[in-house]
Amino acid sequence: MRFTYTEEHLNFLRKKCPEMSIRELTDVFNAHFGTDKKYSAIRSVMQAYDIKNGRGTGYEKGKFQMFTKEQIAFIKDGYKRMTIRELAEELNTTYGLSVTHSQLNSFVKRNKIRSGRTGQFPKGHVPWSASVAGKGILKANKTSFKKGNVPANVRPMHAERINKDGFIEIKIDEPNPFTGHDTRFKCKHVWLWEQAYGAVPKGQCIRFKDGDKMNCVLGNLEMVNQQENLQLNRMGHNSLPEELKPSSMAIAKLTVKTREREKAV
């Protein structure tokens, strides 16, 4: 059934139009009359009945649709003295609006309204910490930590954890090359291999034969070069039946060797 706009509808649009954008007006209209009109429908009926917001050509382009000239002046002045949250509360209280701080923040950014604040401390500024200097608040005092104190959350040697990639890591007595600490966490499967066969050469990596990262035992590990590992992953090696995996490995090695020879030609 075709919807007919009554005089009450049109008068409502005429009254509310100067106070808000068409999108906001659509929401208010639907809430007031219990309708589900689209933004485009409200815009069309306003054009058909020549209902205008009266904010001038400079505002019709969408730059200042949310507020009246008086409200914009209030925002420009208040933003020099208040935060966005404080300004939103003051604006709503003064004009009976319900603008959120995020809406107001987007508005001032979109329209390049500046607060004048640089975010820097002025010359001669006295930091708040000056009033507590020497009171043991900002640095360790005699009751803070004692020599040899060990935090309660320190993990023991060979403690294990799961990293973000799903690999088991183990704490070992080896200097951390990134932090310089005496201990570090290392992937357990790599550590097990190195304990048995020495350091993993550059360009090589350790794979799980059955594809299960949790099955971290030496018999389930094998060393392949990185190109072979990539080819195995592409072929879905881990999901193949056990009887086909030797063939898959042979194909991967042959594929990599063929590519290396083609590049050398």
TrEMBL record:
Keyword Glycoprotein: no
Keywords, ordered alphabetically: Endonuclease, Hydrolase, Nuclease
Name of one Pfam family that matches: HNH_3
Span of domain HNH nuclease: 188-230
Gene Ontology MF annotations: endonuclease activity; hydrolase activity
SUPFAM superfamilies: His-Me finger endonucleases
Enzyme nomenclature, EC number: 3.1.-.-
Full protein name: HNH endonuclease signature motif containing protein
Taxon lineage: Bacteria, Pseudomonadati, Thermodesulfobacteriota, Desulfovibrionia, Desulfovibrionales
